Amino acid sequence: MKIQTFSLGILLVIFWLLNSGHYTPMILSLGAVSIALVIMIARRMKVVDDESQPLHLAASIPAYYLWLLKELVLSNVDVVTRIWRGAGSISPAMATIRINQTNDMNRVIYANSITLTPGTVTTEVSRDSITVHALSSSSIDALNTGEMEARIRRLDR
Amino acid sequence: MTILTTYISWTFLVLGGFLCISGAVGLLRFPDFFTRMHAASVTDTLATALIILGLLLQTDAWMVQVKLVMVLVFVLLTSPTASHALAKAALHGGLKPQLKIARGSNKAGQQSEAEA
Question: Could you state, in order of their start, the residue ranges of all structural domains in chain B?
């Protein structure tokens, strides 16, 4: 039995308890049955692995989320300013940026972080580069400094 | 619910509402599909977060609060995935993004005069 099966079970129990709000023996046992069923289906689908449950990132990801939240607020302010200043204040740009990530998980985190922050969208991901469309060329410059990439590379250490 | 939390809650709600309107304005103002998508992502992220934060303070029932947080988490997880799929599909469908609008040309020029 993999550790991921165990953590999926814990997660589903918490999720069920938080959503249900009815704690009679009858309902609880129905909950237990449905959780068992979900775990069984997930195992049959072979999606219970370190990609769906990246436990190895659990220790380092909260700090990254905090940093990403800060970036999210800053880029929101930037985009809203540009919206109210009008279409003259934007300089749409597209660029292919070389990336230096060791595994798929980090590549996905990087591409999704870029898309999540307003003003930049990832349009293509490949092994060693990603293509980004940005509302202003300054966001491309910010990505080229590689700060976000370096932070993601530090995640699984 | 005290007066203080009411004020804080409404500050968040009004700010979130303002960002939603900003997103809509950007959607109308920006020139092409890709730039409009950037405007819409304001509504996806900070506007949603602020409105949910404001709503969290409106209730004392922990079960409602937990569900609000779940809504926020799911929105933050799914919106970049949807944006990426949309942008990729548009590019593959042959839609070319307009890059670098020169200041002072056609419509964009009028708007930068208005801002000056």
Answer: 3-115
* Chain B residues within 8 A of A122 when measuring between CB atoms: 84, 87
- Do residue A39 and residue A63 come from a single domain? no
Which chain A residues touch B if contact means CB-CB below 8 Å? 18-19, 21, 72-73, 76, 79-80, 82-94, 111-113, 115-124, 133-135, 137
Spatial separation of the C-alpha atoms in residues B109 and B116, rounded to whole Å: 11
Number of domains in chain A: 2
Q: Give the domain range for residue A132.
A: 57-153
Contact A127, A86 (CB under 8 A): no
Contacts of A151 (CB under 8 A, 6+ apart): A64, A67
Structure ipTM? 0.83
pLDDT of B14 strictly over 80: yes
